[in-house]
Design brief:
Length: about 650
């Protein structure tokens, strides 16, 4: 087994790791003598031995069997709604329901309030917190990804009040308006009102660009891109600065406006919302429904009681609804929400039976259609000291603007993908059936936090993660890079490099979330299928040529001395997740009617998990309201979309109570 990532990294960063490696090398050298082994054989042997030591010391214990945990007495609740998950969507929905006078029980695995300085005050330290695991995140990893050399990638999700909104880059973007109009079954005007409501509540504002943004703006202008200000909506062109939930205070400090702090904390303190933190939901309790549109009804949830300091589940309990018409709403995210449905017997019949889980509702789309944006880091060394000093200028987020654009690729994949700028008239509705238009962007950043992020990123990019040797090399490489980054000269050079992220915003590749076993305490199997479709590879290569064209402008040629690890040579080694998982409990697409009869539900679940009112098809009193329901992936970070979904879901729930049409 792999060692526990967090503990192993803490230990491997200490001098003792280097001492152990040195001792192992010396011992092997003495034992083999003059047998002809080369130095790199010794290094590999040291790596494997060190990894074995780490594995022996830090291998986590297998999760306990759910049935073996003590069972606490059932608890009957007198709430109108049970909301599972206090992330972005859960907080937005809870706030709206509470303001309407409804009683809400908000259940969260982590702590109610995350107030650590590195999460709240420093907008560039989110990576360290996210990778640190409990109490900030659940450090999931994907299955080996064939499209990326069988690498296992991070798939963390934020925990605690605010969810992933506590451990992200704080970027705010709605996406392209036309995508919502074309694919979502909701009225675009209602979605805009929900966006505006949460933006006002959170205090979203634009953070101005500094040095790197000004440099990029010169190149974009010379390349013919217009400056755009989409006010949250994405438009092709150069967008200076970034909208953010992070409020600048002074200098490079700020204040993260998390969903829990801004939307829910006050209502919890005043008693309007009841909060159960350090409680993990492990399934939805179902019973036969009397009449209605569905054969089953949600009557509560089964939970595990978490020991706060360690995150270990110590007991289990059933929480039952005691009020007629009460509903359960899953806001646990695109990884945990489908997992909860599957554990409750809602999923593909054959797959559930193979795990020993009784199928209550055959819903084959649960867990499928998993997608995530892909990013590829690009680093250039500037020619002069003055330029390097300008690229080192930072702001509270370390992000300075977006270049939004489109690329065309052959529908069947293959080479020959090309990019087009604002001058090209090609659109998604092109009559040329041989081409597919895909969206991409360049996020201009500074490298102020590169000394923290780079070791983990580079170590994670190189080597095969499905072999013992590859895992050992990754651990050793991480240690070496972390040590090198502490050297002041190296740290200064890294922090003054030009950095940008190449982002594929409309991927074709997709995967799924499945159960590893029937034990709810065991993590789900996450397979995003990164770059499994050749068109995504072609699109990223085409997008890299857009940036190459910027670097080839007169201003770009005078700016850059060289590019480290060019994308066209290192694409599959450099490509990383953007942590924007969506669509695993997909909502019906635009054009489908609201579920009105049981027969309609039986046909609808072949293509979707929830209807346009977010009701789980086949179960009354159960809804899903988070990024997992997205019928189409937005061409933007998913934070804004998740808040919008939560706010709009509350409107749907309240409309049902008073009989208004959707």
């Amino acid at each position: 087994k792999m060692p526990d990532r967090n503990e192993a990294k803490k230990w491997s960063s200490s001098p003792w790791h280097g001492v152990v490696c040195l001792i192992v090398v010396v011992v092997i050298h003495v034992l083999v003598g003059s047998s002809g082994l080369q130095w790199y054989h010794l290094v590999l042997a040291a790596a494997v031995t060190t990894h074995a030591v780490l594995a022996f010391v830090f291998t986590p214990q297998a999760p306990p069997k759910w049935e073996d945990l003590p069972m606490l007495p059932d608890k009957t609740l007198e709430h109108d709604y049970i909301v599972v998950g206090a992330g972005c969507a859960g907080c937005a929905m809870t706030r709206s329901l509470s303001q309407a006078g409804k009683t809400v029980l908000l259940i969260e695995y982590g702590a109610a309030a995350i107030a650590e300085r590195e999460v709240i005050r420093d907008g560039k330290a989110w990576w360290k917190a996210a990778m640190g695991g409990y109490p900030y995140s659940t450090p999931h990893r994907t299955c080996p990804q064939p499209g990326l050399g069988r690498r296992k990638l991070q798939a963390y999700r934020g925990i605690g009040g605010g969810g992933s909104g506590n451990v992200n880059a704080g970027l705010w973007s709605r996406g392209r308006r036309a995508d919502y109009v074309a694919h979502w079954p909701w009225d675009i005007r209602e979605m805009e009102r929900s966006f505006e409501a949460v933006e006002e509540a959170l205090g979203v504002e634009r953070i101005a660009p500094r040095g790197p943004g000004h440099l990029f703006a010169r190149m974009a202008e010379e390349a013919g891109y217009n400056e755009v200000h989409g006010h949250g909506w994405v438009e092709d062109g150069w967008e200076p600065g970034v909208l953010s939930t992070f409020a600048p205070l002074s200098g490079t400090l700020g204040q993260r406006r998390g969903g829990f702090q801004k939307l829910v904390a006050q209502q919890v303190a005043h008693g309007g919302v009841e909060m159960m933190d350090h409680v993990t939901v492990t399934g939805v309790l179902l019973e036969p429904a009397v009449g209605g549109l569905s054969p089953l009804r949600a009557v509560g949830v089964e939970v595990g009681i978490v020991h706060g300091p360690t995150g270990i589940v110590t007991a289990r309990q059933r929480l039952l609804v005691g009020r007629s018409g009460a509903q359960v709403v899953l806001c646990a995210g695109a990884i945990e929400s489908p997992k909860l449905l599957l554990l409750s017997g809602i999923g593909d019949r054959e797959e559930l039976l193979s795990l020993g889980i009784a199928c209550r509702v055959h819903s084959p789309q649960v867990g499928r259609n998993l997608q995530d944006h892909m990013i590829v880091p690009m680093v250039h060394i500037c020619k002069t000291k003055a330029q390097r000093m300008q690229t080192a200028q930072t702001n509270p987020l370390g992000s300075h603007g977006f270049l939004h654009f489109s690329v065309t690729v052959p529908c069947s994949g293959g080479q020959g993908a090309d990019a087009h700028s604002k001058h090209t008239k090609h659109t998604k509705d092109s009559k040329d059936s041989k081409d597919l238009v895909m969206r991409a962007q360049v996020l201009v950043m500074d490298a102020s936090a590169a000394d923290v992020v780079s070791p983990d990123c580079i170590a994670g990019c190189l080597g095969r993660h499905d072999t013992l040797l590859g895992q050992a090399m990754q651990a050793v490489l991480y240690t070496l890079l972390s040590t090198v980054m502490k050297v002041s000269v190296v740290k200064s050079l890294v922090q003054s490099s030009y950095s940008a992220l190449l982002c594929l915003m409309s991927p074709v590749s997709h995967g799924r979330v499945t159960l590893a076993s029937r034990n709810p305490l065991e993590g789900a199997l996450i397979d995003p299928g990164y770059l499994s479709d050749q068109r995504d590879v072609d699109a990223l290569l085409a997008a890299s040529r857009v940036h190459d064209a910027l670097a080839a402008t007169p201003y770009g040629r005078g700016l850059f001395a060289m590019q480290l690890m060019p994308v066209h040579k290192w694409l599959k080694a450099l490509a990383c997740p953007y942590f924007h998982h969506v669509s695993t409990c997909r909502m019906v697409a635009k054009g489908h009617r609201t579920l009105e009869t049981r027969n309609e539900g039986e046909g609808m679940h072949e293509t979707a998990v929830v209807d346009d009112k977010l009701r789980v098809i086949g179960v009354e009193g159960l809804r899903v309201a988070d990024a997992s329901i997205a019928p189409h992936m937005p061409c933007a970070p998913t934070q804004a979309m998740s808040y919008m979904i939560g706010h709009h879901a509350a409107k749907l729930l309240l409309q049902d109570l008073i009989g208004h049409p959707t």
